[in-house]
User: Fold these one by one.
Assistant:
Number 1:
Amino acid sequence: SSTIKVSSKASVEQDETLNTYRSWILFEVSGFLGTSIVFSPTFKGRLTEMTWKKGTNKVAEWDGHQFKYYGSLTGRAELSLSSGNLTILSAQAGDTGIYEVEILAEDDDSSSTGMIQRCYYNLNVTGPLLPPGLNCTIVKNRLEIFCHTDLSTNVGYFWWYSNMDRLIWENNIAKLPLTADRSQKIYCIIEVSGGRINGSLSLDECPVGKYMCKIMSVTQKISLYGLMQCGVEIFGPCCEC
């Protein structure tokens, strides 16, 4: 899972009389329908209590004894006591909105009565996350498969093929030898904003390469013209020039 933090604004205010520390942070977060979205607050000390709200409505909390979830996030959210993270599962369009977390934390040595820290998030749920498209071409005697998506940032690419030893890939480009089994499929998996989806391409949709048949014997001579005319399909029979 991952959180996209596009921009942030922060200011710190210390009130020693009330021993209250407030960290005001605004994060812009985006996610896709049906994916998981993680809010990751920043705080100091050891978390003892936390309350998450959407607008003015409480949606999740740890009261020091148990986790509680409310409203539309009931059965669809998870809190982490160690990190303070709130994870929304199977994001819905109605999850869009402003979220606030209030965390009560004490010093690691428990010398203080606790610090209140707040973070704010503006969540925009779009989607759904669409599978990537794949297309294939031949470059320098190899099949090159391109994985393309309309998403422009924070996209992770992964590839799968039945014989991974023959596959070379980096980001959205994968390479296979021309002799790769055309009955197989290759898969491109994209991961973004806590969501993962794949697209596939059957290798029989790739163009068929050609090579030069260079059959020579002691008694046979091949003219340059004959050699140039001897291009054949990679899966066809070798010609005899």
Note: Confidence is low (pLDDT under 50) at residues 1-23, 211-241.
Number 2:
Amino acid sequence: MSNPVPQQTPTRGRSKIYTRSLLEAKSIELEHLLAEEGSQDGLAPRLLYGQEDPQNPILIHRPTTPVPLAGCLDVRRVRQELEDCQDIWAQSDEKAKVVQMLRDQFGPAKASQIDKIVCLALGHIRDLTKFDSPRMQHIFANEVRGTLQSLQEEPSSKISMYAQDPDYDSNVDKIVLGEAFKVPFNILDDPKGLLKVDGHTLVICIHQNQPLLEVIADIVEDGPAAIIADRGNIESDRHVNAAIGHPLLTMLQGYSKTRFSDALGKTWEDYGEDKTGRFCWLPKLELHVRADLQEAQGTREGDAQSAGSDVRAAS
């Protein structure tokens, strides 16, 4: 029987500013040390990456709290797999068609009404089987953000990214998703992601098995600005729900609908040989845009003040 690894008391970490080139050198140096020294006791320091500033330095927090070596090496592996998927997406016909569809359906006025994207149940990105759906779905969500951002009439206002999934791991998913994209994913615990949704939110919800959209229909008056979801989340038991006035179906009556399969020129059956799961989920998606979105241009501040008044009145 092997001896248990002794518990170590966490201590306060250190912070330092690095340029990107020096950061990469430090990362390589750390990974080399992990491979040679960290494996001796299965413990190693953990790196948490911060954001770049306009001059391109990066603030690095290097806590001395030990974490399992395997977790540190997972970050490197998952980061590389995500980068591989980003390259595949960037060169795909699917990307070009999705971007064109979004530009056609939004335009500057509607895109300017969106200030955040909330992703619900996209899954973790640590899959060892090379099944790429969760990774591609996060890349897709980032593409949606970038496209809408480019359309906005005031590009200085950034669209924030939030994600909620119980399978996220703080030692891997949170680190990689926080550093892989220009605008990082802010990982939220349940139900904080749902509570972020308001009238200026685009919600992305793909192949989840919980009634998350139904919850949103109950708690967000008039509904979010837009929803991207697979048809299975909306069409299941439609004939039953319609008879009892289901709140989600009632809400969606005020939305326009566009199917991704029409933009792609493909159905999910056309991806039958896609064993990696890279794109087979895309044709199942629908884009729902609130019909009054363009008319609501310039009302963000009024909505925020009204929401604040409602909260104060309820408290």
Note: Confidence is low (pLDDT under 50) at residues 1-20, 31-71, 296-315.
Number 3:
Amino acid sequence: MDATRLSDGEPVILKRFSLMRNGLERDITMFLASEPAKSHPRNHSTPIYEILDIPGEDHSILCLNVFVKYSRDCGFYMIVA
């Protein structure tokens, strides 16, 4: 889901992680978003602004990613083999 970060008006993407289903996804995301992996030239992951706990939900978090562009603006094609 896209949103606007209130602190600076930057557009962001909110991604919800279910810690029950896949607890490693948060660890992998944090690893790729921190140094030295963050600056590695082969790291093409979307930069992360922050990770937020969801009030009242013990098994989910929200990840605020940099908004890159609308997916409908990309030239995606389906390849049928």
Note: The chain has a mean pLDDT of 81.
